[in-house]
Design brief:
single chain; 431 residues; alpha/beta; Rossmann fold; Alpha-Beta Plaits; six-stranded mixed sheet; 15 helices
């Protein structure tokens, strides 16, 4: 069996550690008749034939063809160390501008984990990677012809993996660490859709009887995805559709709450945000405020379809007072930027603040150098009762039923829609 080592965007610390602990590797080579056919640190440089390719480092734009060529030749491809399977420091460098001009001048761009471009069969964790873990992985493949453990902490596999996907929410239990954040937030908004099933190491987060989200009472607030720390639950991404609108010089509508959130996240003024949207390619920028669209005198006004379902599921007696939430006047060639994931039900493409920030970070724009664009914001209305947070919303509807007068606006997200489910993780309220 032939093994080849390759290094991309990394400091080579993982491979130096292997060289430093080479006596351990030597025992493996002798025991199983394994040959290292490529490792420049050992002055072995052949690339003609190999069974296992061990990849160190993140992949940049200049490395994509090479990593695909390696994948075609290798029977097994292993990501070695944090930079390879997570992106590591190389990725952080591109994301946060560390020496970015130097790399861009040389033709490099981005820095991504290996799995983004090719199939990865196994992982070895650590910074630098653990030599003992690499040996165990190689032994497993030699003895069984496959690699099962990947980077898991335990020496067994769950056999209860499940994927629930309704086109709006996607739950992948393979990624779930059963931290309980999603089940807690689902309970806090009185939906109780997500729960734990099975026992012991087989436990997974799922819906009752593994039914679809909507069939089990989901209000599509998107909070489960917002609070998931590992991306096991995700809401529908509209990033690619939004990019097409940008290419066609479309219009962007941005909610007032989203404008506030972006100013907080990107640390720039409202005026520079408008300039940023124009710089990205939008032909026109329109700021819209939900409160300005409320014209009724009495009733319960949900901020989105999530609050509407909340009332219908929990307060049947309040349905007669339930008004439809105002719809934004969006055209076909338009993008909406919002803090509210539920808005994705009303328009495609709808970008959450979190999605928009991902687009901006990939553009390498120096935000501080953007010019200030003059904008006019309406003053806040004081005659509208806006209730924020699940408990406050629940209590407010109960009180409204006792004395149904005036306009009651509901915002189900903890902290209200200014910290809605489409916000960046750093802006969400602690639960």
């Amino acid at each position: 069996m032939k093994v080849a080592f390759f290094s991309f965007g990394a400091c080579e610390g993982c491979r130096y550690r292997i060289v430093n602990e080479f006596p351990k590797i030597a025992k493996l080579l002798e025991k199983y008749d394994v040959e290292i056919v490529r490792e420049p640190l050992l002055s072995v440089m052949s690339e003609e034939e190999y069974d296992i390719a061990i990849i160190e480092g993140a992949i940049t734009s200049l490395d994509i063809n090479k990593i695909k060529e390696i994948r075609e030749k290798a029977k097994v491809l292993v990501a070695l160390g944090s930079c390879s399977y997570l992106g590591g420091i190389a990725t952080l460098g591109y994301r946060y501008g560390i020496h970015i001009k130097e790399y861009l001048d040389k033709g490099y761009s981005e820095g991504d984990p290996v799995w983004k471009y090719v199939k990865v069969d196994g992982y070895v964790r650590g910074c630098p990677a653990y030599v003992d873990d690499l040996i165990s992985l190689l032994e497993e493949y030699i003895q069984t012809g496959s690699i099962k453990r990947y980077e898991r902490r335990f020496g067994f596999e769950k056999d209860t993996d499940l994927i629930l996907d309704d086109g709006f929410l996607r739950l992948d239990t393979k990624k779930c660490i059963v931290c309980g954040r999603c089940t807690e937030i689902c309970s806090l908004v009185y939906a109780n859709v997500l729960t734990n099933s099975f026992r012991g190491f087989k436990v997974i987060v799922t819906t009752p009887a593994q039914e679809s989200f909507l069939d089990t009472g989901c209000i599509r607030c998107g909070l489960c995805a917002a609070y998931c720390p590992v991306g096991a639950i995700k809401y529908r991404s509209d990033i690619e559709e939004a990019k097409k609108i940008i290419e066609n010089r479309g219009v962007v509508f941005i909610e007032r709450y989203a404008l506030d959130a972006l100013a907080n996240d990107l640390k720039i003024t409202y005026e520079k945000i408008i300039s940023l949207l124009e710089t990205l390619g939008f032909s026109d920028v329109k700021i819209i405020d939900f409160v300005d669209l409320i014209n009724n005198d009495t009733g319960i006004v949900p901020f989105s379809s999530a609050e509407k379902r909340f009332v219908m599921n929990n307060f049947p007696d309040a349905i007669k007072y339930l008004l439809d939430y105002p719809k934004f006047p969006l055209s076909e060639n338009a993008v909406l930027i919002t803090n509210c994931v539920a808005r994705k039900e009303d328009h495609v493409p709808t970008l959450t603040v979190d999605e928009f920030i991902k687009i901006v970070k990939g553009m390498h724009i120096t935000l501080e150098d953007l010019p200030d664009k003059r904008i006019k914001l309406n003053s806040d209305k004081n005659d509208v009762n806006i209730v924020k947070g699940p408990r406050a919303v629940h209590e407010a509807v109960e009180e409204f039923l006792k004395n149904p007068k005036g306009i009651l606006v509901l915002q189900i997200c903890p902290g209200g829609c200014s910290k809605g489910s489409g916000s960046s993780f750093a802006q969400l309220d602690v639960i």
